[in-house]
Amino acid sequence: MEKLNAISRKNSLANALTPQQIVEELDKYIIGQLEAKRSVAIALRNRVRRQMLAENMQDEVSPKNIIMIGSTGVGKTEIARRLALLVDAPFIKVEASKYTEIGYTGRDVESMIRDLTETAISRVKSERTDTVEEKALEAVEERLLDYIFPMPCSLKRESRVENNTPNEPEEVNSNTTPQLPFDLEPHVETEVAEGPGKKYERYLKMRQRFRDWLREGRLENRPVEINVKHQNMPFVEILSPGGTDEIDIYFKDMFNNIFPDQTKKRRVPVSEARTILMQEEAEKLIDMDAVINEAIKRVENSGIVFLDEIDKIAGRESQRGPDVSREGVQRDILPIVEGSTVTTKYGAVRTHHILFIAAGAFHVSSPSDLIPELQGRFPIRVELKSLNKKDFKRILTEPKNALVKQYTALLKTEGLDAEITNDAIDEIAALAFQVNESVEDIGARRLYTIMEKLFEDLFFRAPDLGRDSIIIDAEYVRSELSEIVKDQDLSRYIL
Prior knowledge:
Blueprint: H1 2-15, H2 19-27, H3 34-51, H4 55-58, E1 66-69, H5 76-87, E2 91-95, H6 111-131, H7 133-148, H8 153-162, H9 188-191, H10 196-216, E3 223-230, H11 245-258, E4 262-269, H12 270-285, H13 288-302, E5 304-308, H14 326-338, E6 341-344, E7 347-350, E8 355-360, H15 372-376, E9 380-383, H16 389-397, H17 403-412, E10 417-420, H18 422-438, H19 445-461, E11 469-472, H20 474-480, H21 482-486
Parallel strand pairs: 1-8, 1-9, 2-5, 5-8, 10-11
Antiparallel strand pairs: 3-4, 6-7
Helix pairs in contact: 2-3, 3-5, 6-13, 7-12, 16-18, 18-19, 18-20
């Protein structure tokens, strides 16, 4: 058995992405910053390696948390986000500046783990929904047919008489009888001779006809009245000096037990009813206990928390004013990063092996200004370089989601083929670099504002241009952005 487990672990390691492959995937979306990509790739691979170790050694290997140092817009968030997407890991981005020491207004630091758990629950639930989609669709189809073409009351009564079941009060609903394009009832002379079995057979035949129409999409716009789960939650506001995060964990569950789910009638088209009923039927087929167990397991072993603006809490308590809680926030974050157990409404979540990636500009502070205990929990530090003119040009054209591709695709929807020449791209990159140098360096985000200003007039006039193509060259770029170049107060036009 132990030999089989060793083979399984070896195969899992072989199937995982190598650090070089991770960097290659990140290169498809992020230009430059090779050092940062190598660091996150190694940290990610080490997580896989840890899971391949013997169980008694796994807990001894701590995650290699990272601090990214660099100005805004150089790719810190994008690297972490793409890394999580690459391995389908639970991921959350939080700002350290929104957390405050207990006793001050702000969020409890443990809420980041609760939010991460919620993200994992949603993802696992979505995956399980895909696996039961076929069965759920069958159940939805039957429920829609019950709403569109319900069984006649006479057949229900005859069925109860045959089964010796007592009559139950029936809801009177004038909208249950559909407007049919044909005569469903038999002729008067044959109605007397027709027995219950014949009536039921005719009902099934007509139900099958409605089923065929439903599958062909002929009933999509037909309104139906469906029963939807509804719960009236009373509004109660609770004030607590410790914040409302912990109260919220149990508050909704408490009222769920006191006020059980009720149903209300809604009249919606078949297309909308299918979506509503699909969600209800999928929830019936999904084992939520298994979903929760799987989600917590993913959070504990694969979760990634991107802690942005950590430089905003790098300070000492000797400072006064609104910065007084900076060191307190660091001490509150420390046990989460160090490894603790956080209570969520789904159960306890251990943070010992969650990967934390912190980031900050550190213009007026440095990582050494963090408390020593927190510094020790981020052993890897990598500095991201500011972007130059060459980087801007590559960002405009090389990534899969390059801005040039995005803007030309948007114009294509209006039937306008836009060709952006190389000299135009050079001009845009040069202008973005110039504005960053003159006003404030916001990195690649400057390209978004430049491009939006460049295409503003074209987006406005595109539906009425009456032409099929347009060429955007350097001259066009200079004419559209000439005022920006002339005006010294560039922030008046772009950020």
